[in-house]
Amino acid sequence: MSAHSRFTKEMRERWLSFMQTSHPEIDPQAARLFDDFRVIAHQIHQLSENSLDASGLSYAQYRVLMILRFCEWDGKCDGLNPSEISATQGTSRNTISSLIRSLEEGGYIERQLDSDDRRRFNIHLSDAGRNLAYEHEHQHFQLIADLFSALSPQEIETLSALLHKLSDQISTLKE
Question: Is 78:122 a contact under the CB 8 Å cutoff?
Fold first, then answer.
């Protein structure tokens, strides 16, 4: 165990003690699990960002390119409007607007007026964006395979079911 891991564990225990002192009703296991999720989510995000260093893209930009690539593969060749991209990515419209702008400036996507509603526009991959997404998808999918190779198929199913259960609870709490 590295010095950083010991420090993290010690700090974590002190943090949990602090939380329990401030709010004795908090279940220490739930608080520990919440912190575990935060740490793992951050680590996965960092791995994803690092895997794209050579591309010059952020993980958020890459995700936009990949959803557009998926839509092309799925036969939806008329592109997606920013609201659809926002909904599929679970990201705000403002964030998507910024991502679209940066990808457009990089020449990776193009905007076209919607043929059904001239007040809206759809986003399409440019050839450069399609090629860049394709170049990096194998490496990204390999990262996913490598990450989850630590779990058995049954553990993956269990984790997936538990994450869906938490997602449902989050939806309930948002209401």
Answer: yes
Average pLDDT over residues 129-137: 93
Residue 38, pLDDT > 90, answer no
Residue 72: what are its φ and ψ, rounded to 5°? -65, -45
The pLDDT score that the predictor gives to residue 7 is 58
Rounded to a whole number of angstroms, the distance between the first and last alpha carbons of the chain is 42
DSSP assignment of 93-152: HHHHHHHHHHHHHTTSEEEEE-SS-TT-EEEEE-HHHHHHHHHHHHHHHHHHHHHHTTS-
What pTM, to 2 d.p., does this model score? 0.78
Instruction: Classify residue 27 by burial, with Cβ atoms within 10 Å: 0-12, 13-18, 19+.
Output: exposed
Q: Which distant-in-sequence residues (6+ apart) come within 8 Å of 129 by Cβ?
A: 65, 68, 103, 107, 108, 109
Structure-block tokens of residue 170: 């989050």
- Number of other residues whose CB lies within 10 A of the CB of residue 117: 10
Contacts of 112 (CB under 8 A, 6+ apart): 79, 121, 122, 124
> In this structure, is the dihedral angle defined by the CA atoms of residues 75, 77, 81 and 85, taken in order, positive or negative?
positive
Instruction: Specify the pairing of strand 109-113 against strand 121-125.
Output: antiparallel
